[in-house]
Amino acid sequence: MSVDTATVARIAALARIKLSEGEVAAMVPELNGILAWVEQLAEVDVTGVEPMTAVIPNTLRLRADVVNADPLTGGDRRDAVLANAPAPQHGFFGVPKVIE
Amino acid sequence: MAQLTDLSVAAIRDGVASGEFTAVAVAEAFNAQVAEAQAALNAFIVTTPEHALAAAAAVDAERAAGKVLGKLAGVPIGMKDLFATKGVQTTAASHILEGFIPPYESTVSQKLWDAGAGMLGKLNLDQFAMGSSNETSYFGNVISPWRRIGKDGGGSDTAPLAPGGSSGGSAAAVAAHLCPAATGTDTGGSIRQPAAFTGISGIKPTYGRCSRWGIVAFASSLDQAGPMAHDVRDCAIMLEAMAGFDPKDSTSLDLPVPNWKATLSGDLKGKKIGIPREYRMDGMDADVAHSWDQGIAWLKDAGAEVIDISLPHTKYALPAYYIIAPAEASSNLARYDGVRYGLRALPEGAGLQDMYAATRAAGFGAEVKRRILIGTYVLSAGYYDAYYTQAQKVRTLIARDFEAAFELCDVILAPTAPSAAFALGEKSDDPLAMYLNDVFSVPASLAGLPAMSVPAGLDRQGLPLGLQVIGRPFDEQGVLNAGLAIEARAGFTARPERWW
Prior knowledge:
heterodimer; A: mainly alpha; two-stranded antiparallel sheet; 3 helices; 2 strands; 33% helix; flat; B: alpha+beta; 13 strands
């Protein structure tokens, strides 16, 4: 499988990365080179093989259902959460207007 | 007495504990080395001399008060700038996180501070740990302290060399004695390959040994933190401090941390070492092949039995990795949206979607964009099964290859990288050529296995070569022991001549 400029533009839009026409054109042969190389995986017989889900067997744990059980990852930290926001407003994350 | 900056982690810790020198004197000595080398090597993104001094002063005060000192008391280290450090800028070497000051500390770095270590600074790396040469950092290339022997056989060739990647700053800083040890992270070889390129040791433990909490995520099913240091014993000491169960990481292993350093032994009697025949590839670098043969002889000399093994799906590891890692990266890096932290690019009149796209265009470097696009493509409707599911099935087969091999042997010996360090710019125009650098390191990553690189010698250009030891899950001890046996026989004492 290979990609063309329309496909690269569509992927870039899905990935929310703005690319100029020139950047899209430059990306096409690069991605095709990588895709042609990974294509060799298709020759591997994977009949009856399950896809890897956990490389080291482990079980998912549940924590106790307690509010702020770990203060480090708990709530009541609004100012710390907003400290790195580019445009905090009135205690919220500010974004451009989204109403059409 | 040797200079303080020539000492190992163990020697610094013991010297501080015995009162031979103070922790503050050690921190001052390393701070000076860091400052002198920064312009030439660019190993650090920010330096934190005050952090190193404060931690050292605290250790000296504890000692004066007769308290029990931590495992790393008085040891100043370098911290890869992928670990969130409270109050200290954490960038993953990206523009999009420039100026990000974490309000929290990563689990691994907190454990190191709790053990008495101090921080000399945040080490440069490939952007979001994506790269094998440290040429993708927004904050400039790291220059290896090593140089090739001049073409006429004398002097040195001044062409700047890559320290490897992604933990290139960590490798360069340890090799140049700017710090006695540093943290690294390894997704497909990012501890082992730079360690090999710079003549130092580094271990990636079993997936889950070190908490990923507070480490900027690249490919979550592969990312593991580990130490980089001058020798195997120092790696063991550092790893003991870094490892351990953390409920904040759902893939953290709920296992006790063994006392790896105390049980280190280079005696390999009764051990079987597997040599994977698929790793001996056509056109293999002659010096790399020679160093591998030497390694085999050293392990035999240490009492081990060497056997031929097969890892049949080896050639598919790299293409599987370059689907799985970008797929996970494209998902992980979706969080950089210009809303909650980091860079925001807001063109005149832009709406929310335009802001996302402009922010990510301005904030990510070329290699990061390339991998996000590949990842987005292989996860997109219609291609998911052909690429991503197929790659995950191949990953299962690669893990089974190792399981079968470990029925026959205890550890596996292989080269770390297909060549010694290359010059900056030599591979940066061809993403595929760069990816091939990970050919020997990626299979163990895909299988989550502990693996380390130890220096084996110099090639004919005068550059270090590393040997890689891969072990069973949870058997860091076996890996460290085989590494120690190699270290004892390689007698690697070479270090870069100071030109910076």
